[in-house]
Amino acid sequence: MRITIHGSLAVSLLAAATVTGCSSPKPTPPAPAPPVVVKQDTDWKYSAIADSETQSSRDAQAMAKRNVYDKAARWAESIMPRVRERFALTDTADMLAYLNLAKDDAITSLSMRVKTYDYGRTQFESVVRVKPETVHDTFRRYLVGGARYVTPAERPAYREWCINQVRLP
User: Fold this and answer.
1) Residues of the chain with pLDDT under 50
2) pTM of the predicted model, to two decimals?
Protein backbone atom coordinates (compact mmCIF):
# COMPACT_ATOMS: atom_id res chain seq x y z
CA MET A 1 0.00 0.00 0.00
CA ARG A 2 1.31 3.35 -0.99
CA ILE A 3 0.33 6.62 0.73
CA THR A 4 0.93 9.97 -0.91
CA ILE A 5 0.75 13.22 1.03
CA HIS A 6 0.27 16.45 -0.86
CA GLY A 7 0.36 20.18 -0.19
CA SER A 8 0.23 21.82 3.19
CA LEU A 9 -0.12 18.52 5.06
CA ALA A 10 3.38 17.51 3.93
CA VAL A 11 4.84 20.79 5.08
CA SER A 12 3.20 20.61 8.50
CA LEU A 13 4.30 16.98 9.03
CA LEU A 14 7.87 17.88 8.08
CA ALA A 15 7.85 20.85 10.47
CA ALA A 16 6.46 18.70 13.28
CA ALA A 17 9.14 16.05 12.70
CA THR A 18 11.99 18.55 13.04
CA VAL A 19 10.48 20.17 16.13
CA THR A 20 9.65 16.95 17.99
CA GLY A 21 13.09 15.43 17.82
CA CYS A 22 13.61 13.88 14.45
CA SER A 23 17.18 12.69 13.97
CA SER A 24 17.64 14.79 10.89
CA PRO A 25 20.45 17.37 11.13
CA LYS A 26 19.36 20.75 12.39
CA PRO A 27 21.06 23.89 11.28
CA THR A 28 23.10 25.54 14.01
CA PRO A 29 23.58 29.24 14.16
CA PRO A 30 27.04 30.39 13.13
CA ALA A 31 29.52 30.98 15.93
CA PRO A 32 30.04 34.62 16.75
CA ALA A 33 33.14 36.05 15.20
CA PRO A 34 35.99 36.76 17.61
CA PRO A 35 36.40 40.43 18.43
CA VAL A 36 38.80 42.30 16.22
CA VAL A 37 41.77 43.42 18.26
CA VAL A 38 43.83 46.15 16.70
CA LYS A 39 47.24 46.22 18.27
CA GLN A 40 48.59 49.71 18.05
CA ASP A 41 52.26 49.84 17.24
CA THR A 42 53.85 52.31 19.62
CA ASP A 43 57.49 51.52 18.90
CA TRP A 44 59.74 54.27 17.65
CA LYS A 45 61.03 53.28 14.21
CA TYR A 46 64.10 54.52 12.39
CA SER A 47 65.24 53.33 8.98
CA ALA A 48 68.25 53.87 6.76
CA ILE A 49 69.13 52.71 3.26
CA ALA A 50 72.73 52.11 2.18
CA ASP A 51 74.85 50.06 -0.23
CA SER A 52 75.89 47.56 2.44
CA GLU A 53 74.05 45.78 5.22
CA THR A 54 76.55 46.97 7.81
CA GLN A 55 76.32 50.61 6.77
CA SER A 56 72.52 50.66 6.71
CA SER A 57 72.44 49.08 10.17
CA ARG A 58 74.95 51.59 11.54
CA ASP A 59 73.08 54.53 10.03
CA ALA A 60 69.71 53.40 11.43
CA GLN A 61 71.18 52.79 14.89
CA ALA A 62 72.91 56.17 14.87
CA MET A 63 69.64 57.82 13.88
CA ALA A 64 67.83 56.03 16.72
CA LYS A 65 70.46 57.00 19.29
CA ARG A 66 70.44 60.63 18.16
CA ASN A 67 66.66 60.84 18.34
CA VAL A 68 66.48 59.20 21.79
CA TYR A 69 69.24 61.52 23.03
CA ASP A 70 67.31 64.56 21.77
CA LYS A 71 64.12 63.35 23.44
CA ALA A 72 65.93 62.76 26.72
CA ALA A 73 67.42 66.25 26.46
CA ARG A 74 63.94 67.75 26.06
CA TRP A 75 62.70 65.70 29.04
CA ALA A 76 65.58 66.91 31.20
CA GLU A 77 64.93 70.53 30.19
CA SER A 78 61.21 70.25 30.94
CA ILE A 79 61.71 68.50 34.28
CA MET A 80 64.21 70.90 35.83
CA PRO A 81 61.72 73.79 36.29
CA ARG A 82 59.20 71.38 37.81
CA VAL A 83 61.82 70.05 40.24
CA ARG A 84 62.77 73.58 41.29
CA GLU A 85 59.11 74.46 41.77
CA ARG A 86 58.21 71.44 43.91
CA PHE A 87 61.34 70.61 45.89
CA ALA A 88 64.06 72.45 47.77
CA LEU A 89 67.40 71.65 46.14
CA THR A 90 70.73 71.59 47.94
CA ASP A 91 72.61 72.43 44.72
CA THR A 92 70.77 73.48 41.60
CA ALA A 93 73.84 73.34 39.32
CA ASP A 94 74.64 69.77 40.37
CA MET A 95 71.03 68.73 39.79
CA LEU A 96 71.14 70.26 36.31
CA ALA A 97 74.39 68.42 35.55
CA TYR A 98 72.86 65.21 36.88
CA LEU A 99 69.85 65.58 34.58
CA ASN A 100 72.22 66.07 31.66
CA LEU A 101 73.78 62.71 32.53
CA ALA A 102 70.33 61.13 32.30
CA LYS A 103 70.53 61.66 28.54
CA ASP A 104 73.72 59.62 28.38
CA ASP A 105 72.18 56.86 30.48
CA ALA A 106 69.18 56.70 28.17
CA ILE A 107 71.56 56.04 25.26
CA THR A 108 73.89 53.56 26.96
CA SER A 109 71.02 51.40 28.18
CA LEU A 110 69.12 51.63 24.89
CA SER A 111 67.73 48.34 23.64
CA MET A 112 67.22 48.26 19.87
CA ARG A 113 65.84 45.62 17.53
CA VAL A 114 67.36 45.78 14.07
CA LYS A 115 65.88 44.16 10.97
CA THR A 116 67.61 44.43 7.62
CA TYR A 117 66.00 43.99 4.22
CA ASP A 118 67.96 43.07 1.10
CA TYR A 119 66.87 44.77 -2.12
CA GLY A 120 68.74 42.78 -4.75
CA ARG A 121 72.24 42.94 -3.20
CA THR A 122 72.63 46.57 -4.23
CA GLN A 123 70.55 48.29 -1.58
CA PHE A 124 69.93 47.37 2.03
CA GLU A 125 67.39 48.90 4.37
CA SER A 126 67.72 48.54 8.11
CA VAL A 127 64.82 49.30 10.42
CA VAL A 128 65.54 49.91 14.09
CA ARG A 129 62.71 49.64 16.61
CA VAL A 130 62.89 51.05 20.12
CA LYS A 131 60.27 50.53 22.82
CA PRO A 132 59.45 53.96 24.29
CA GLU A 133 58.31 52.45 27.60
CA THR A 134 61.80 51.11 28.29
CA VAL A 135 63.39 54.47 27.50
CA HIS A 136 60.87 56.26 29.75
CA ASP A 137 61.48 53.78 32.58
CA THR A 138 65.27 54.11 32.27
CA PHE A 139 65.03 57.88 32.37
CA ARG A 140 62.72 57.80 35.43
CA ARG A 141 65.01 55.40 37.30
CA TYR A 142 67.92 57.70 36.63
CA LEU A 143 65.92 60.67 37.90
CA VAL A 144 65.37 58.91 41.22
CA GLY A 145 69.14 59.05 41.79
CA GLY A 146 68.90 62.85 41.73
CA ALA A 147 67.37 62.69 45.20
CA ARG A 148 70.84 63.36 46.61
CA TYR A 149 70.47 66.97 45.38
CA VAL A 150 67.13 67.43 47.16
CA THR A 151 66.96 68.38 50.84
CA PRO A 152 66.89 65.23 53.04
CA ALA A 153 63.37 65.87 54.31
CA GLU A 154 61.95 65.92 50.78
CA ARG A 155 63.88 62.98 49.30
CA PRO A 156 61.15 60.35 49.77
CA ALA A 157 58.57 62.64 48.17
CA TYR A 158 60.96 63.36 45.29
CA ARG A 159 61.58 59.64 44.66
CA GLU A 160 57.86 58.92 44.63
CA TRP A 161 57.25 61.88 42.31
CA CYS A 162 59.90 60.63 39.86
CA ILE A 163 58.40 57.16 39.60
CA ASN A 164 54.68 57.94 39.68
CA GLN A 165 54.12 61.53 38.68
CA VAL A 166 56.62 62.46 36.02
CA ARG A 167 54.96 62.56 32.59
CA LEU A 168 57.32 62.36 29.67
CA PRO A 169 56.14 63.50 26.22
Assistant:
1) none
2) 0.69
